[in-house]
Design goal:
The complex is a heterodimer of chains A (311) and B (374).
Chain A: H1 2-32, H2 39-59, H3 64-91, H4 99-118, E1 128-129, E2 138-142, E3 151-154, H5 155-177, H6 179-189, H7 191-196, H8 201-227, E4 229-230, H9 236-249, H10 254-274, H11 283-297
Antiparallel strand pairs in A: 1-4, 2-3
Helix pairs in contact in A: 1-5, 1-8, 1-9, 1-10, 2-3, 2-4, 2-8, 2-9, 3-8, 5-6, 5-8, 6-8, 9-10, 9-11, 10-11
Chain B: H1 2-25, E1 29-35, H2 42-61, E2 70-76, H3 81-93, E3 99-101, H4 106-119, E4 123-125, E5 140-142, H5 147-160, E6 165-171, H6 175-190, E7 194-201, H7 209-216, E8 222-224, H8 229-241, E9 248-250, E10 267-270, H9 279-291, H10 299-318, H11 323-331, E11 336-338, E12 341-343, E13 355-361, E14 364-371
Parallel strand pairs in B: 1-2, 1-3, 3-4, 4-5, 6-7, 6-8, 8-9, 9-10
Antiparallel strand pairs in B: 10-13, 11-12, 13-14
Chain lengths: 311, 374
């Protein structure tokens, strides 16, 4: 029982990171019908910014209540600007081209970011260790059954989980309850009609990218604090898993992204935890098996609305 | 029209650069080095490179070899197996090197060694320990011990520590980790120990809590972790986060691990300890410190230094830049006074060297024991 509960916690805490990234995927897809493959790399940039800031914070011995907000704010600002630039420079000129063009451009942007950051002058291919700003401590210890070891929930598990819920709630509120959110829904429904209604669609789309990238930044900082290790290819696998998570939950659906992310984390961890040890390394493949199964059984995802083909 | 002129200029410049290189090379002895100067095993490549550079500087200060200066061409494989293959090809085709030094990680030494074997270029690995690296290969050598010895030393150490129940956590995509863990398990069970859990991960993974939770539930006395430092850092940290506080121990891939509260109380087997009082080791450390602003060399520094010096000695004895002559000379290396001990290349192209066991305490490694080869 102890093991199972601990594996659940392990799975949920990694799932929270996937969920944060998946939220950004889903935002952009919901509005533009574009899978932004560069999203995982924006997340990496968030972690790199967190690393650079953390180094300085550590050197100046700043207390946590100063360093943490600066870390998050810095990464959000940096990634927001990056998201804006990517949309403005790469996707906007292709707005009226077939969707495939933008998709391939997204893959190009992703490769560009990965290789740019592997350059020694920018960051370098070597993983860097973050100074230990936030000491990870067991916040909750639960003794269950006859086990001598408690089930441990760390402070970072709680932070990532809390952030995840807060972000989803905030995003839902934003989309459903604000004027900007209304505009966003209108653009997502039909871009040209929205612009006839006097909505500045370019502004709405830019904002979507900024928001999505800010979410990636939050995930990046959480991850940097979690593993205390940052490298330019760190966005690759989580990016793909978060994409699968978004599809699993129903791409375009905000609660779906959260659900999908947490499920992905759980599936992966439970497979690692209960498959014979020899098959541990296949748990990454589980993500793709899940993707194939969803596409076969429920292409619109768990919480997605089945889309009607317009004739 | 304008673009044609542009391309013609570029082509001409390339041609000039190419020709210049050809002329320069014949007056020097060009030795190639490939290693992970960047990437997730950067500690390995950088340490080795520093050691090799020290040996190159020394030989050139002494007038070079065969009356010619030694020029080292270094290629970064970024810790990537495919990249290792292509940079070794580049060293051979483009730079026409007489011999190759590298790699540390066995997976990449196997890959690069394959190219050297095919092209008939002698290669010396400073610190790859997987037996397969040199097995059946005519041109590939190493100047360190192999994993059958290292795994056995680890197992005997565990028995001596009275750790009866051991869990093993192996990287399933590292030739080094797989072989070392196999040798460890063989000796440990033969000595009456019990392997209570065997878990695997992949190099590049970041999340290990699922495996650690599983290992924890079997209550091992200690965990054997034959991996590389980048993952070990994460594994140790996550184990401590889970409240899993048994000792961890492993092999020479640990060199580079963060010496902090998470690794405190761990042990690993290695090629060398800076606390070794032998004069050859202390002389090397002094020379290294003088060159690199007082930095204390790691094991890769000393193995890189010895690999380069064994190669230079072989070139001197061969008396020519012929690759086959150099290969034969390396194979005949006997009692070469290396910094880490005398090196004799045996019929399997391996060197027999003592192993040190290091303990991490108080943010430092300490020499716990030295084991001589049989």
């Amino acid at each position: 029982m102890h093991d199972f509960l601990q594996q659940l916690i392990n799975g949920l805490s990694i799932g929270a990171v996937y969920a944060l990234i998946a939220l950004g995927y889903t935002m952009v897809y919901g509005v533009l019908r574009l899978i932004n493959f560069a999203h995982g790399d924006v997340y990496m940039v968030g972690a790199v910014i967190a690393y650079e800031l953390a180094k300085r914070m550590y050197a100046t011995q700043s207390p946590l209540w100063i360093s943490m907000p600066i870390l998050f704010a810095g990464a959000i600002a940096g990634c927001g600007a990056l998201g804006f630039a990517i949309e403005f420079l790469c996707y906007r000129p292709l707005r009226h081209r077939p969707r495939l063009v933008a998709l391939i451009t997204a893959i190009g942007v992703s490769l560009l970011l990965e290789n740019l950051f592997q350059n020694r002058l920018v960051f370098g291919a070597t993983p860097r260790n973050l100074p230990e700003l936030l000491t990870i401590t067991p916040t909750l210890k639960l003794w269950v059954g006859s086990s001598a070891e408690p089930v441990i929930v760390t402070n970072l598990d709680l932070i990532s989980f809390g952030l995840c819920i807060a972000m989803m709630a905030g995003l839902t509120w934003f989309v459903l309850r604000t004027r900007m959110g209304l505009a966003l829904r209108a653009v997502s429904f039909r871009v040209d009609t929205a612009s006839l209604m006097g909505i500045n669609t370019n502004r709405v789309i830019s904002m979507t990218f900024v928001l999505g990238s800010a979410l990636a930044a939050v995930a990046g900082v959480v991850n940097a604090l979690r593993y205390q290790q940052v490298d330019p290819l760190m966005g690759l696998i989580p990016g793909i898993k978060a994409f699968v998570a978004a599809v699993l939950g129903g791409i375009g659906s905000i609660p779906g992204a959260l659900l999908g992310g947490l499920l992905m984390g759980l599936v992966e961890t439970l497979l690692k935890g209960y498959l014979p040890a020899h098959y541990n390394s296949y748990s990454d493949a589980a993500a793709f098996v899940v993707l194939i199964l969803i596409l076969l059984v429920r292409p619109s995802g768990l919480l997605g609305k089945p889309s009607l083909e317009k004739v | 029209m304008r673009w044609m002129i542009g391309w013609a200029t570029v082509a001409m410049m390339l041609c000039i650069a190419g020709c210049k290189k050809q002329v320069r090379e014949s007056s020097q002895i060009v030795v190639g080095e490939y290693g992970s100067l960047s990437g997730s095993n950067a500690v390995f490549g950088q340490g080795t490179h520093n050691g090799i550079m020290l040996a190159v500087d020394e030989v050139n200060a002494g007038g070079g070899l065969l009356g010619k200066p030694v020029q080292l061409v270094t290629e970064d494989d970024e810790g990537n197996q495919d990249e290792a293959v292509s940079v070794v090809k580049k060293l051979i085709d483009r730079d026409n090197v007489v011999a190759v030094l590298g790699e540390v990680a066995s997976t990449r030494s196997l890959a690069g060694g394959g190219v050297c074997e095919q092209e008939g270029v002698p290669m010396i690995s400073p610190s790859s320990t997987n037996p397969d690296v040199t097995k059946g290969r005519k041109y590939v050598f190493r100047v360190c011990f192999t994993d059958d010895f290292q795994g056995a030393v680890g197992a005997k150490f565990a028995i001596r520590k009275n750790w009866k129940r051991i869990a093993v956590l192996t990287s399933s995509n590292s030739d080094y980790s797989k072989k070392l863990s196999q040798f460890f398990k063989d000796t440990f069970t033969a000595l009456g120990g019990q392997i209570v859990a065997e878990e695997t991960y992949s190099d590049g993974d970041k999340e290990f809590k699922a495996q650690l939770t599983r290992i924890q539930s079997r209550n091992p006395d200690a965990v054997y972790l034959p991996g590389y430092y980048t993952e070990i850092d994460l594994i140790l940290r996550q184990a401590r986060d889970l409240g899993f506080n048994v000792p961890f121990f492993g092999g020479d891939g640990w060199d580079g691990v963060e010496l902090d509260s998470h690794s405190e109380g761990s042990y690993f087997t290695n090629h060398y300890s800076p606390e070794d009082t032998r004069p050859s080791v202390q002389a090397f450390i002094a020379a290294y410190k003088a060159k690199y602003d007082g930095a204390v060399p790691d094991a890769f520094g000393i193995t890189g230094y010895d690999a380069a010096r064994v190669l230079f000695d072989a070139i001197k004895r061969a008396g020519s830049m012929n690759r086959d002559a150099i290969r034969d000379a390396i194979a005949q290396t006997k009692d070469f006074p290396g910094a880490g001990g005398n090196i004799t290349i045996d019929e399997n192209h391996n060197a027999k060297k003592p192993i040190v066991i290091l303990e991490i305490t108080g943010g430092k490694t300490h020499l716990a024991d030295t084991i001589q080869p049989d």
